[in-house]
Amino acid sequence: MNALRRIVAFVAAQRLAILALALLVLLPVFAAPKLRMPGGTYAWLFVIDITESMNVRDVDARKPDESRLDRAKASTIAALANLPCGSTAAVALSAGTDTVTLFEPLEVCAHFPAIEQAVRNIDWRMAWDGDSRIEAALINAIGEAERRHLDLAFVTDGDEAPHVDVPRLGDLLALRGPVHGWLLGVGSAEPHPVPRLDADNRIVGYWTAIDAAQQGFHPNLVEAIGHASAEDLEKSGALDEVVEHRSALRAAYLQQLGTAAGLGYETADKDDALARLVVDAAFRRQENADRDVRFVFGLAAALLLLIDRLNLLRATRSRPRGVPAPGLLAR
């Protein structure tokens, strides 16, 4: 009996050693170790349209307060979170004919909190032009992406003032090739009035047809506007051709631009739409980068625990009846 007790005590001591080793192996996990290894990465320039039509709240009937800009920012953050470590990203704003890059490409894992906060703080009041010329802005965005060797994700409703029904496309066709990526459309296909917002982003009114005409988008109405009231112009039907005060997602127009530029097109029907697109295998790059290796230590610890359980099971099956299991010796 004493011999059996010694055997059981030995097994119990072995269990303690294995458990201690498993704990020791697990400790490096808390230091978030990384190892530089080759693997798949991505490099993106995310461009967000911040013009006034992006304030229209029509992206989800279940979320009446969610604007197109809100959806654009949420889609960009979800895409950033889905990129593997080693990937790089920059963020830019689009208004008028320009695209302005906020910061140079940063590694997404090391700098994710800063990038996320920068995107969350994007506001329509940062726009230097309330109107947009999507084709010209896209040309500038492609140039920004090409200079940084990035793929391009341009998030917009495609709305312009004045509307362009037939884009020229020549300049985009000339740029086709070096930069690949996506145009992501946000908004509803049904026209909605463009809101006026106060300092707290509350809707205090909407743009009207006379407002759009006064911006000079319809030169043939300039003289009429100066000699008639808004009420008279509306009654006479003179403003029927004015559409810029209402906005809708112009998916067909964006598809035209995308095809000319060599970019794909998708609609942001959900926040994760862009997240799936940016990790498409077509955009993967094989590069050396710091990889998170915490899983290696976690697997090693799990393997030691499995060995411990197997040893315990084997000892339990092999001991004579009436002998306590390791760790349960009578005192």
Quick structural overview:
By secondary structure, the chain is α/β, with parallel strands linked by helices. The protein is built from 11 helices and 13 strands.
Q: Could you characterize what this model shows?
A:
The chain contains 11 helices and 13 strands. The protein is elongated, with a radius of gyration of 30 Å. With 331 residues, it is of the alpha/beta class. The chain has helices at residues 2-26, 68-82, 112-120, 134-147, 170-175, 209-214, 222-227, 230-236, 251-261, 273-277, 294-318, and strands spanning 34-41, 43-49, 88-95, 98-101, 106-107, 151-156, 181-185, 192-193, 195-197, 203-206, 246-247, 264-267, 285-292. Helix 2 (68-82) links the parallel strand 2 and strand 3.
What's the helix and strand layout?
Layout: H1 2-26, E1 34-41, E2 43-49, H2 68-82, E3 88-95, E4 98-101, E5 106-107, H3 112-120, H4 134-147, E6 151-156, H5 170-175, E7 181-185, E8 192-193, E9 195-197, E10 203-206, H6 209-214, H7 222-227, H8 230-236, E11 246-247, H9 251-261, E12 264-267, H10 273-277, E13 285-292, H11 294-318
Parallel strand pairs: 2-3, 2-6, 6-7, 7-12
Antiparallel strand pairs: 1-13, 3-4, 3-5, 8-11, 9-10
Helix pairs in contact: 1-11, 2-3
